[in-house]
Amino acid sequence: MSDTRTATAALLVLTFVVSFCSFVYEFVYSELLTVMYGGTVTQYVITVGLYFFSLGVGAALSDDLNPEDYGGNFFRTEVLLAAVAPAGFLLIVGLNSVRVPRAVPPELLWTVARLPVVVVGFLSGFELPLLTHMVDDRDDDGTTTPAWIHRLGDRLHDWTVTCLGVFWNVERKEGRRSGLSVVLAMDYVGGLCGAVVYARLLYPRLGLIPTIFVLALLNAVAALAFVGYFSGWSWPSSDNDDRRLFGDSTPTPLVGRVPKTLLVVCLLLTASYAGVVANHETADERLSELYLEQQIENEYPPGAMSVEITDQETTRYQHVIRYERTWTGAGPNPHFTGRSEQCLRLGSAVQLCDSWADSYHNGLVDVPMSLVDHGPETKVLVVGGGDWIAIDHLRQYNVTVDHVDLDAQFMNMTKHDPFFRHWHDDAYEYDRLQTTATDGYRYLQQTNETYDLVLLDVPGATDDDLLTLYSKEFYRSVRQHLTDDGMMVTWAYSADRYPEHHKAFVNTVGAAGFTRQLPYWAWEDIDSDGETERVERFYAFAPGGRQPLSVADGTAYVQQYRDRYHDRQWHRVPRYRGVRVNSIFHPNYDVLVDT
Amino acid sequence: MRRRQFIVATGLGAVTALGGCLGSKSPPPRKSSVVSDFEVSDGTLVVDLADNKWVMSRYDGSQQSPATVSPVGIASAKGSSGGGGGRGATGRGTGGYTSAPHTSHGHAWYHGGDYADDWYEDHEEEVTQYPVTVAALGVAYLGSTDQMQDEAPDAGTVSWDETFQNPSGTVMYDITNRPEFSQAGWYRVGANIVGGDSNHDFRWECYDLEVSDGATGFRIDEQWKVSPRI
């Protein structure tokens, strides 16, 4: 194989590698921004838009790069990409970890968090024009290509042109193809491979943090390989094509003088990234722990709470985080009794803490159980609640329970974990329990059962994936599976803190046919200061009139807090003007809360 | 196309395209008239309720929903983390008082701003002014100015130190009666308002007051009206 042909092939391999990296950078940033700011569709759309815009600007400005030094500029581009891409990733993580002063406008933070996308897109925009120029300059007419490749290529080309001719007016082009067409083709192949490898291997197996370092390592290695192959010290001693290419009587390397500093930087980056990738599990764990701890601590005044991540696991559907929070404030601890307690989060949303695990489930189960009969004839559906704690509360009333949760892996994990066992007391063994691992909405579409009580123990509305569980269609489906006296109970966000979510939520439930609501709180003295505090807000919804909550006939919990429940009445579900209902096919993103 | 034209054109295109993404689109705080004046006299916080109390809301008043007074206390909601924020004037305890827009009663309007007028103009048909009464009034010490700079609470109820049921006219609260507090610092006064006609619970209208201890005794330096977004 001639040097020209080898060099062209090498450039096309490089095209594949750099386009692979560039496409996957885009996916990594999109996912990272989704994790940090929520809203999958919004983050992906904005990231892709910004990326392509920056790509276009970079491609347009590549004309201003010195044509005498395409190789040197390509090397610089790759080194910069290898340095900037992980740095940008860490910048976004850092922005969400540090305590940003309130005076900093959110628009500025939004812009800074998207800068890495713009920079990586801009640098990637240089790549294709530079590679195209270099491939064109190789002047490979194809005569050195093996005959069988030619034949195969010709057949494929004939077939493609024939297909094109069905709709377009075509004229088959013979001979050498332009550098742009082969580089573009290889770019798209690299992009496709990047998408598949990211979706099937990198993201599910490694996660976001190791992936960004794998990509940066690829970029750095590509830069080194390029400079090693095409620079002066490795350039073949004689080649007529090369003399022709560079218009010189002596062979001129594709890469001119490479600054030693840049080369050293590239070597250092390669070595560093190789180290990180080799120890990716440790790096991933340390970095994500650091981020999570800082993020949770920032929810409290400076120095008030210390957080230590004790365990984290990613199931197919959610990131499960266990941590211990320790009160380090100067005054009395207003959040819980004692100095430390364990908590659980799914993604960024807190799900459970020792101090209110019990009272939360009192609100979810023991209050509405004052409104329905006890015994096996009463049928209850629990949607969510993979921690089994609601089931434990329900079995005290000897009711029949259907339990639906999407995440079988999480449910299995919580069965035997001591932290959860303490709260659910092996409730998964309850003999009147039927558990199904599926999506709650799908379950309701497939079952003909009707229920006296439907309990929604679902995660917070922090992600597009959960829009269905907050949609009119889902609530309507719940309503259609209620008995004549049935009702739905769910926890709810604060109307003051999340006003847009609250109005969208209430209007959506109303549009699903629920006309009456019974709002109430779960109560407990969670910090042992002698005063009963509100723990969680709940709503019972019904499609018609229902009996009021009777303290005298209430459960032990309701009777314990009788002064808090004695005046609970059903009211009409309010409606707010100008607030759109959240529907599966016409989502109202206001129903998602900012985290 | 020349380079300069290209850069200008693409820059303008990008700014226009991203204009729809930058910034919050959250609606402004609701307008209301509940408390007309605050003053501190001989260590006592005096709260004068407005004569004509009203609130603007998107609640559909054609529905009748009997009120239940919103309870008091603190909450630790499942699913929450962070949140709040949005556009408009901020700066309780961080120097934004003078530059913030002020209400007709002279209170700095938290999260208020020029955008609020535009919003109310654009959504005129969705908003109704409802007459209200004060079902309960709460007073709470929030902490020192330093604490407020770190963690100023959002709109809504807090853990009240003292509550007054069905107050009318003037309410007085002795801010020297809690020796465990530094009496200078930030206080929140909240009014749980209920529709006079509709009997709908409109939850809490709150006011954050910075009280300092000078040579002439306690005085109020800053008064912020903190309302939930409409």
Describe this entry's structure for a reader.
Chain A: S-methyl-5'-thioadenosine binds at residues 318, 405, 439-440. Chain A: It is a multi-pass membrane protein. Chain A: It catalyses: S-adenosyl 3-(methylsulfanyl)propylamine + putrescine = S-methyl-5'-thioadenosine + spermidine + H(+). Chain A: Spermidine binds at residues 361, 387. Chain A: Residues 288-546 form the PABS domain. The model of chain A is unreliable at 234-250 (pLDDT under 50). In chain A, 51% of the residues lie in helices and 15% in strands. Chain A is elongated, with a radius of gyration of 31 Å. Chain A is built from 19 helices and twelve strands. Chain A has 595 residues and is α/β, with parallel strands linked by helices. Chain A has three domains: 3-141 and 180-251, MFS general substrate transporter like domains (Growth Hormone, Chain: A); 147-175, no CATH class; 354-591, Vaccinia Virus protein VP39 (Rossmann fold, 3-Layer(aba) Sandwich). In chain A, helix 11 (357-366) crosses helix 12. By secondary structure, chain B is mainly β. Helix content of chain B is 14%, strand content 37%. Chain B has helices at residues 3-19, 114-122, 145-150; strands at residues 32-41, 44-57, 108-109, 128-143, 162-165, 170-174, 185-195, 201-214, 217-226. In chain B, strands 1, 2, 3, 4, 5, 6, 7, 8 and 9 form a nine-stranded mixed β-sheet that branches. The radius of gyration of chain B is 20 Å and the shape is globular. The chains are: A alpha/beta (595), B mainly beta (230). At the A-B interface, helix 2, helix 4, strand 4, helix 17 and strand 10 of A face helix 1 of B.
